[in-house]
Structure formats: structure tokens, C-alpha cells
What does this fold into?
Amino acid sequence: MRVTTSKSKNAESFYISKGYINDKGVSTSVIVRKLGTLKELLPEHGPTRDDVMAWAREEARIETLKYKEEQKSKSIQITFHADRQIHYEQHVLHRGGYLFLQSFYYRLHMDKVCRKLRDKYKFKYDINAILSDMIYARILEPSSKRSSYAVASEFLEKPSYQLHDVYRALDVLGNECDFIQAELYKNSHLLGNRNDKILYYDCTNYYFEIEQEDGGKKYGKSKEHRPNPIIQMGMFMDGDGIPLAFSLFPGNANEQTSLKPLEEKVLSEFECQKFIYCSDAGLGSEKIRNYNHMGERAFIVTQSIKKLKAEDKEWALNPWGFKRVSDGKDIDITTLSDDDTGLYYKEEPYTPHKLHQRLIVTYSPKYARYQKTIRDKQIDRAQKMLDSGSVKKERKNPNDPARFIGKVAATTDGEVAQIHNYLDEEKIRNETLYDGLYAISTDLLDDEVSDILKVSEGRWEIEECFRIMKTDFEARPIFLQNETRIKAHFLTCFISLVIYRYLEKALGNSYTCDTILSTLKSMNFACVQEQGFIPLYKRNKLTDKLHEICNFQTDYEFITKKDMKTIQKKSKGRE
It folds into this structure.
């Protein structure tokens, strides 16, 4: 602490001020206490100005001692002035939720991956800071690259790069996409063994805000049924729900052709040789099954009952021959109660072509009740269409209520034939035959049925991964045009998903995605007179758990700047 003075035309004022280094590394000071004007102080501390100055210095010494004692007890005294305006462009709100994401980013040694890229390309901008900020912004406040830069400027640690560096880095990230994925997978073992003995595969697509095809942006079957060009993504996920690898392919390509190139990369670059391939029926063609029957690989894929040969379909729909999964007891499913919640199965050898397989059909009364409830509502809507005389079928929607409406041409007394619409009861009865039934095919001929079904049931998590990327991380629509930068965009989305999944796993999978993300977004801090920070979020069990798994605390009443620097270092694995 020291004494400072300021002179005006009519008076000289005395203050006690404290020096510090601000965020920009510049030495500055802040007024701790105003002592008064020389005119006010002379009667009590005079008679001369030197006497007043001596008294003021003693007061500064006392304040210094008091500050040191307060520092020891972590008690901070800050003075606010109701008559003092804030400075122009003063910004006191800072985002802090990224610190918990940063903890997992550095546990995956992504900074070392970026160091390898820097050494290879010899650029001068900080690609580690750029990539990490893009990932944190993608999770906390997904937006364009320009807006993400603005979001990063609100973090406790400001960007050490310029906006134009972001676009330059995209080119490098896009070109090194495969290398980064392989390094990420290798480093992920530092967080524990990967459950890569089971690999789930699925595809989705993303649309662009353009009207014309260009490069890999092609017109195709959009998941959102939008009339825009799309690009498709294939992704592998391990048995714990952690993404493993992804690839992009043109929007008009058959998704089945996407599997082999990506799986070959997993086999060679990731050195995954022994695993069970699991996917839905659309990515379980006979060719794909044969490919995953090679080496030490096996497959479990969904099998469409409707597409089975006549004799196999008849067997699958027959209610006889089922057993309870829990104990293998023979069950007649026609005698099950309305509120039964069990799962039942039957199996038979299955050789549709040359490959010997095992066809397992399951029946779930709970799933049957759900399907019936949905269908009854669709039938009601179909009847309303008939009553209103407005029948319009949507060919692309398999759940369109109009599928239950049949039509027949009727003529009377030689008049022109008229179309008569009616509720097709036969079609409704045929659809009820499949209620509660689900089939899978596998080349695991000796494994327990319960183990096979457990693997198959895990497919929902890859759908959840795509939902998070599309909805929570807003990976679409895509505004980038350059193919390399598009790949970089999806790479940042992919790494964001990996980091989020590891965070979710560390939390014991006890919280929903919405709860985790909303909590991280709320963890903001107010910077107080450049002295430190006050948390602006509500402490709860989730924030306690976040601090526990990341090994630092931000939920104190006040955090000094020095302590915040220590927290930032801890989030990067540095003490």
C-alpha cells in the first residue's frame, strides 16, 4: 500500500492505493481508501503538509498490515463507491464452466497433439488455444467460428490469437483429421481401458444452408427431410458410449459403402483387431456381415422380420416356442398378463446365403403395449382424415397415419369411376402381428442369448451421440464451403462429444445432458475491482461432483486472482 495524491484547482486529495498486475500484464493500481483533502486533514494532523503526509503514510502501513492479516485468513475487504462511474468498455462477467471441460481436454493430452502439428507446420499462432477454445465454445455456446471467438473472449483466460488465425487453423485441422483421431484414441487409454471389444456403427447426415450441390455436398435422403444438399457422417462408438472414430462421405452415397474404409482405418491405425460389430439392419447387409466375420471379428445386427423369407417369417410370428430371458423357462406369450414387463426370446439357425448365423427373435409385452398405443392414435387421425375428406399420404414417413387408409374405385350406372377411401382393417391387423417383436442376427453361435441381447440394446447410445451433436452442439446447419474446413468443423464437434462423454462418465452417468450443460453454462464469475472473482452460480450436488472429479474448487465466496491462476493451472494438470 502507498499514499497517492491528486491536485485540482481548489484542493489536494490524499488516497491509499494498492498496486497490482492486470489481465494484460500491465502494472496499475486501485484506490483502497480516500483519506480526505489537505484542507480537511490539516486541523487534526497538521500543522504542515509534511505532517499530514507522515500521518497518511502511517495509515498506509496499517492498511498494509491489515491486508496481510486478511490474506492469511482469506478475508478480503473491498471498497465500492456509489458516486464513481464504471470505466468505458469495462467487462466484469467471465465464463468459467470451460475449466471442467479443459480438465478432460488436457487429460487426453490434446495439447501434445497440437504441439506435434506446430512442429510439423512451423506456424506461429497457438493452435492448441484455438482448438481448445473452439471445443469449449461448441459445448457451452455453439455458434459460428466468429461468434465462438467472441465467446472465448469471455472466458477467464482470454484468447492469445486473432480471429484470422482461427480460419488458418481450420485448414491444418481438416488436413490432419485422421492423425488427430488416431492420437485422440491412443491418448484416451490414459483415462482408463477402452471398451473397444464392442464397436457400434451408425450413420447420419447434416444439411447446408445452400441450394446447389458442391463437392461432397449432395442431394440425398435427409434425416430432417429438408430440401438442402447434405453431407453424411459414419461413426464408430465403443461399448461405453465413447466415440471412437468418424468419417465423412457425399450426401448421395449409399451409407453401406461408408463402413469398410472407416473400419479399415480402425483396424490399422487404431490397432483394434478383435471386436463385435453392432449396427442396425440398414448397415447389416450380407456383405457387411461377411466382412465382419473375418479375422477375430464378429457381428450382431438388427434383422427386419418383414424382410425374412416366408418360412422364417412364419416361424418368427408364431407365438409358440418362446423362453424367458431371465431363467430360460418356456413361456406361452399368448397367456401373458397385460402388465407383464418381462423379455422373452426364441432362436433358430439362420443361413440366408452361405454364412451360418443365429436368428434371435425377442418379444416384449411392454414394447407391444407402446406400439399399440401409438398405432391407436394414428388410426384415430386416419379416421379424422376420412371424416374431413382430406386424405394426403406422405411417402417418406413410415409412420404416416394415412397408411391405414385404403382406396377403391367405384362406378354406378355406367358413370365415371370415383375413388372411395376407407379404413383398411386388414392392414391394421397385419401390423399388429409384429407388436412387441424384435429380431437380431449374429455369427456368435455359442454365446448366451442374454449377453447378445445386452450388446444389441446398447445401440441407443450412438443415436444419443448423434442427437447431442445435432441438437446440443448445433453441428448443423453448416455454413462453411471449403471441404477441408468442413472436415475441421466436424472434427471439433467430434472431439467435443468425446470430452463431454468422458465428463458424463466421470459423473457416473447420473445426470442428463441438459442438466450438465445448463450447469456448466451457468458457472460464471464476476471480476471485482481487479482483486479477484465472485462465483455467480448456485452451488448444488452436481457442482460439488464437478469439483471433486476435476480436483479444484471454484465455489468459495471470493477467489483471489492468484488463486484463480492456480485453479487454471490445475485444470490443465499443472500444479
Observations:
- The chain has a mean pLDDT of 89.
- The radius of gyration is 33 Å.
- DSSP finds 19 helices and 19 strands in the chain.
